[in-house]
Prior knowledge:
The complex is a heterodimer of chains A (858) and B (84).
Chain A: H1 4-47, H2 53-70, H3 74-93, H4 95-111, H5 117-136, H6 148-155, H7 158-169, H8 175-182, H9 198-203, H10 210-237, H11 248-260, H12 263-278, H13 296-303, H14 305-323, H15 328-354, H16 362-386, H17 398-419, H18 423-432, H19 438-455, H20 474-495, H21 497-501, H22 505-514, H23 521-528, H24 531-534, H25 544-550, E1 565-567, E2 574-576, E3 581-584, E4 587-590, E5 609-615, H26 618-621, H27 631-643, E6 649-654, H28 662-671, E7 680-685, H29 690-702, H30 710-718, H31 727-734, H32 737-755, E8 759-764, H33 777-785, E9 789-791, E10 805-807, E11 810-813, H34 815-831, H35 833-836
Parallel strand pairs in A: 5-6, 5-7, 7-8, 8-9
Antiparallel strand pairs in A: 1-2, 3-4, 10-11
Helix pairs in contact in A: 1-2, 1-10, 1-20, 2-3, 3-4, 3-8, 10-12, 10-20, 11-17, 11-19, 14-15, 15-16, 16-17, 17-19, 27-34, 28-32, 29-31, 32-33
Chain B: H1 2-15, H2 39-53, H3 64-67, H4 70-83
Amino acid sequence: xxxxxxxxxxxxxxxxxxxxxxxxxxHAVAVALTALQLGLVAVVVRAFExxxxxxxxxLLLALAGFVVQAFLPLRWRMRCxxxxxxxxxxxxxxxxxxxxxxxxxxxxxxxxLPIRFGWRLLLVVGVVLGLMLLRVRVGLFQVPGYIWPVxxxxxxxxxxxxxxxVRHEGTPKDLWGTVAYFFMLPNAAFPFFPIIDYKTFLRQxxxxxxSGLYARGIAWMTRGLVHLLLYRLIYHYVVLDPATLxxxxxxxxxxLQTYLLYLRVSGQFHLIVGLLYLFGFRLPETHHLYxxxxxxxxxxxxxxxxxxxxxxxxxxxxxFFRLRPQGNDRAIVLATIVVMFVTWLLHGWQRFWLTTxxxxxxxxxxxxxxxxxxxxxxxxxxxxxxxxxxxARKGYDVRRGLGTVMVFLTIVLLWAIWxxxxxxxxxxxxxxxxxxxxxxVLLLAGIGGFLLLVGGWDWGGTDLRNPKPTLxxxxxxxxxxxxxxxxxxxxxxxxxxxVRDSLGFTVSGIIAQVGSSRLNSLDxxxxxxxxxxxxxSPDRGAGQLWVVRQTKPADWDIIDSTSAWGFRSDFxxxxxxxxxxxxxxxxxxxxxxxxxxxxxxxxxxxxxxxxVAVLGASPVMGPGVPEDQVFEELLERxxxxxxxxxxxxxxxxxxxxxxxxxxxxxxxxxxxVLAFQxxxxxxxxxxxxxxxxxxxxxxxxRRGIPIPDAAIQGxxxxxxxxxxxxxxxxxxxxxxxxxxxxxxxxTRADSLIRAHGxxxxxxxxxxxxxxxxxxxxxxxxxxxxxxxxxxLQHIYGxxxxxxxxxxxxxxxxxxxxxxxVALKLEEGLRRYADALGIPPLWGAAEAPASSQPxxxxx
Amino acid sequence: xxDIIGPVKQYILDTxxxxxxxxxxxxxxxxxxxxxxxxxxxxxxxxxxxxRFGIQLEAHEVDAERLDTLTAIAALVQGKSARV
Lengths: 858, 84
């Protein structure tokens, strides 16, 4: 038995030990539960193909890093995070990551030089100007172009906050913290990143209990995943092609979709900030119920608090203090004006680094101009009301509800302006709203009523809540983990094909669509037709298309960046330049003396030759495969071989040009093709065929090329189409005239072909994983004209269509795809041999043995 | 410290937290990161501190590190007062 005195000495030690053991056990459990949930987050990202594959790898690396750092002493954790961050850059960008690290350490080294701050600043600015030059002159010093969004994401704003801190607080002593700050995980996977304050980043590192930080991090990451999935749902099922708007309901849906697509940014920011919480960085809550802001100043604070804090620190407060002698109220309003102006400028700066499009767009200017005006007016009102500030009303407040409705509808309209290429374009969209329909009225009433009802309540305004995470007991950690694990595991489960398919046709179809990184039909169509490439069009912010483009290798050239692509001064607008030999999509791309991606052919048809001219867009041109593997070349070789015993030769002439519209094919037929005396003309259709017409007309307007059609000219003029207008705006402007143009292209081509004694057929194509289109104008016109239709839209059978595409980021056919097309086209031609007057060299004896895709060698 | 915290706390309660329970505003209650002080309110607080305690604040001193809690505010005022 121990005596009391002994007990008095021994018992506290034992309880201390027991306490330490208990805390260590609780910590281990919290780390294990968090690691499990982080692992599930990674699986969800993989299962739903969320963002890029790089995010999945980043999360796996973060998972390993998280577990290691969680058991390290506090002083080592920042170093661990810095190491994981640097490793992520190398993991995602491989050797190009060394460029990012080199540029980063150069800037960091300059800012740490033991010279006066002014000189350091001068050196840093000089290097940044040099980097801007490299950014513009892509390829200079062989710097890979795709590092710039990452470099920009890391340094374009953080450098300013870091130098601001150095200027006022002196050179930082925590070098590891500074390295971690600049190369911050997961920036390599998300170039568009919240602007995290340098001092906040260091000061609030593990300043709250670990279990609470981890739980909040997982909660926000889960919320981020939900936002990203909702975004996908909207992207695939709500987004309307602006060219197809017909009623008020369509207009309301279109305006809503532009704002709702912002869910992607809030999802990304939640994932980023949540992941940083797992490494101990307590940061502000991002995008806190921003759909429910009841004033513009509140929206400004909620929607991106990181931007607001950045502006407040480096612009608002310095301006206010400078102007304060003029009076506080005046200084506040003037400082707000300066903030909104600088915000507009810096969004241009951001675009410069993150995209390759124009730095400022018409939509941007209108958006920031109008939003700035509203925020300044709201700030002036707040200043006036500050004198008689009232406590926020608890419970429901109808004025707050009305404010929420007003802010939401206004911001939806502003977002629609931002998404437009011109005010005239937006006005033409809004004008469609005059066609009032029940759906439109119900949509407006439903949105207004919902926001009035929900927005009237107080959703986290000023209160005395403590935002710091608290220490969680074992039970609380377990309950928290159970909730989020069930959500995450549920998502993993429904993405699993056997489970998904058991949910019924409709639901499984939706889940499959949401769980795929494929583009929606509108973006798909524009991307495949090189719309974004040929137009050098601005990227659509943080859209799905951007992800696809980001995954493209730097040397995956675009045709208009090569010398093989040229502009003309007539309505044909574009063409392939003759006698070029360039590297395009990692393949040698040669054009002959007639500007065809094909071998050389004489104009005069040799005796005993059956000549087929194939007209079309990029699928016919054959990007990314060797020249002798394009389907028309494969057919030419095979049929010539068959005809050899009879002394006959077959020629297939490739007139394919990227992004060509049917109208351009007609002009090409007149100006180039018929001179080759073809026996058969194969006009190809890649529905929806209206899209490249928009591109064609928009490019013509942009280059000041007269449009030789009075009706089209009038329609474009009435819609205010100018050189900034996008293809979809042009399409909407010409409306039903678009279909007429398509039909006329076929009938006029038919007259020309007949006049030259040749025959014609329409070949309908569909690239792998490309949605079936309802656009049948060309096919219906061709059928009425009496042309055979060779429909190759269903050639893939039950095979995964991805096997026939050239790459994840490019849906043109690979060699196997071209082999399949050649096979199916030959079948089609044989079927219509009589109608097309094809000579008997393609006798039934030489018919292909099988028509299944499996017959095509991989 | 209390001679600074007292008036500041009263000012915040009277100006930004009308109707709130005074005991809920503790010395470590986050004011900026907790959403009690927005940018406008922060500048109003700065004006109050300058007038009440006869100090002059610089733009870079107006941040969450120095103004997020009553304790931090008191330390800032004390430091500035010592330099006056």
